Amino acid sequence: MLRTIAAISRFTSLFLIATLGITSVAHADRLKEIQARGNLTCATLSGSQPLAYQDPTTRQYVGFDVDTCAAVAKHLGVQMVHKPITVEARIPELVLGRVDLVAAAFGYTKERAEQVAFTSSHYQIPLKIIVASESGITKFSDFAGKRISTEKGSTPELYVHRVIPSAEVVTFQDNASQFLALQQGKVQGFAIGMASGLRFVNESGGKYKFLDEDLAHEPTCLGMKKGEPELLAAVNKALQDMQASGELDALWNKWYGPQTKFNIPRGKLIPVSAL
């Protein structure tokens, strides 16, 4: 019996070593794998205008994140393969290796950085709370005992818990469901990144507004699986080149610039080491 257990133990150890070895090789070769197959699988959200959403006429996915993915792929010398995902699926899809890159309002946090790798932050935006203009709510302290909607697994959810612990957090699968809950009076606040939230405020005819306070000023990055230093370096190089040439600013201005209804400044390219 002891010999059998020992044999099983040795077999298990050898199997784990072999598996880890294969995994390490796969991580080290992912950039080469992308270049060999000629495409970069990049995931974005599917209904977050103007980050990534379906054009009602063409039914094609468009938006800043989609354009950023396509530009990074071009700098790597490959084509982009687009994959829509939910907020809560971003980290699992990367960890399981189902996508190469995530560009989906992916805010950097130290907790997330323990699970996935982040590129430099290519834009920074405030996280805000939307309320009904006639609600009488003017500051965070007014939310004691009230309900705030957030998207499940998002940084607004994280920061509402941190900044307004006296409020009850109610999670939803998408921004549209969050806003509907606010309209129906099921929640009294709607936490969201300002870039995505402006659409709801601007199209409300003055019925809804942002509070003046910010939950946080979120650095947003591209995400990838840990243990892929070559791919991380290549994507960071692509972002650096896009910053230097003005390409990043051009993409941002197309979707968020002064000629759009959003008119939000992008910020700058910040190395993850400085976050």
UniProtKB/TrEMBL annotation:
Kinase keyword on record: no
InterPro entries noted in UniProt: Bact_solute-bind_prot3 (IPR051455), Solute-binding_3/MltF_N (IPR001638)
SMART domains given in the database record: PBPb
Signal sequence bounds: 1-28
Keyword set, alphabetical order: Signal, Transport
One Pfam family cited in the UniProt record for this chain: SBP_bac_3
UniProt xrefs under SUPFAM superfamilies: Periplasmic binding protein-like II
CDD domains in alphabetical order: PBP2_BsGlnH
Gene3D superfamilies for this protein: Periplasmic binding protein-like II (3.40.190.10)
Residue ranges of domain Solute-binding protein family 3/N-terminal in the record: 39-259
Protein name as it appears in the record: L-cystine-binding protein FliY
Organism ancestry: Bacteria, Pseudomonadati, Pseudomonadota, Betaproteobacteria, Burkholderiales
